[in-house]
Specification:
Number of helices: 3
Largest sheet: 4 strands, mixed
Shape: globular
CATH architecture of the largest domain: Roll
CATH topology of the largest domain: 2,3-Dihydroxybiphenyl 1,2-Dioxygenase, domain 1
CATH superfamily of the largest domain: 2,3-Dihydroxybiphenyl 1,2-Dioxygenase, domain 1
Number of strands: 9
CATH class of the largest domain: Alpha Beta
Length: 140
């Protein structure tokens, strides 16, 4: 099968609070198809969706309760250390919970972690050896 990750859906407690957070904190505009039931953000070839947690759990036939670390982090790659700090600070100013302050990494990059209003972990990172295509997608 051809590898194809198209949509990442985050279960959220309040769709409006989460929509506002991602718009204000990261500058992401809701895409066509977004409404009062679901929000989409286009990211090159991947779509990030926000959907009510209880409905997402019901659809997946799992309990909606969450606790602790889910074992998943999402990453926003940046072009510089300064950009990592800018994105991190704007997220925190708009209600993100600080998980890890910006720091040098042992692998030669620079990163920071925050949690969104629903506790989803995000890494903001810069790596001097990564390259991006004309759409901003990471070349691996």
């Amino acid at each position: 099968m051809k590898p194809r990750l198209n949509i990442v859906t985050l279960g959220v407690k309040s769709l409006q609070i989460s929509r506002d957070f991602y718009k204000k904190a990261l500058g992401w505009e809701p895409a066509a198809g977004s409404d009062e039931n679901i929000v989409f953000f286009h990211h090159g070839g991947i779509v990030l969706a926000l959907y009510p947690l209880d409905k997402l759990a019901e659809d997946a036939e799992v309990p909606p309760e969450r606790s602790g670390f889910s074992g998943v982090t999402l990453a926003i790659n940046q072009d510089s250390k300064d950009a990592v700090e800018t994105v991190f600070n704007k997220a925190v100013e708009n209600g993100a919970k600080v998980l890890v302050e910006p720091r040098e990494t042992l692998w030669g990059g620079y990163d920071a972690y925050f949690a969104d209003p629903d506790g989803h972990s995000w890494e903001i990172t810069w790596a001097p050896f990564w390259e991006y295509d004309e759409q901003g997608s990471l070349k691996m």
